[in-house]
Write a structure and sequence with these properties.
globular, 170 residues, 5-stranded parallel beta sheet, 21% helix, Rossmann fold, alpha/beta, 9 strands, 17% strand, two-stranded antiparallel ribbon
Length: 170
């Protein structure tokens, strides 16, 4: 099985998002966030930085996803679970009971929807599943590459499964 996630970019280097979402310390908190949102069905996603696809690939939430909103006009061609991206200005018409803002350091994104989100809709961000500040080199910018400079690999070996690591010095 292949996961459609971004782990490295030739333009930006290693993906801090991939390392943040897959970090063993935050895995339980992210799983709990995904489960809690599933209980609040239906759910909408506001994806201001294009992080939702990686989140969905890693955690495969079984939500009743009813809307997908984006901030940047160039992201309007995207889809998430076959839902076409809508501009965030349309968020006021959502039928969702919960909205996930699929980003860390979400203060700006929260401000972007504060005036338009329907009253009574629960708003959640990935900030609920951050590493503690004491573990970060730069707590002011969570996805700073310095916060996730270490590459972690979890190997699984048993009678049926074997892990092979292939690397290149890029």
């Amino acid at each position: 099985m292949t996961l459609a996630i971004t782990t490295f970019s030739n333009e930006r280097g290693p993906s801090a998002l991939f390392k943040a979402l897959g970090h063993p310390v935050t895995a339980l908190a992210l799983s709990a966030l995904v489960e809690r949102l599933g209980q609040a069905d239906p759910v909408a996603v506001f994806d201001p930085h294009g992080h939702a696809a990686d989140l969905f690939a890693l955690f495969a939430p079984a939500w009743n996803l009813v809307a997908y909103y984006v901030q940047r006009i160039e992201d309007l061609g995207r889809t998430l679970r076959d839902l076409p991206a809508q501009p965030v200005s349309a968020i006021g018409g959502t039928t969702a009971r919960a909205i996930l803002i699929a980003t860390y350091d979400a203060a700006k994104a929260l401000a972007a929807i504060a005036h338009g989100a329907p009253r009574g809709v629960a708003v959640t961000t990935l900030d609920e599943a951050r590493l503690p500040d004491r573990m970060l080199a730069n707590p002011a910018r969570y996805l700073d590459p310095l916060n996730f400079a270490t590459n972690l690999a979890l190997f699984r070996d048993d009678d049926l499964t074997h892990t092979r690591l292939v690397t290149a010095n890029y």
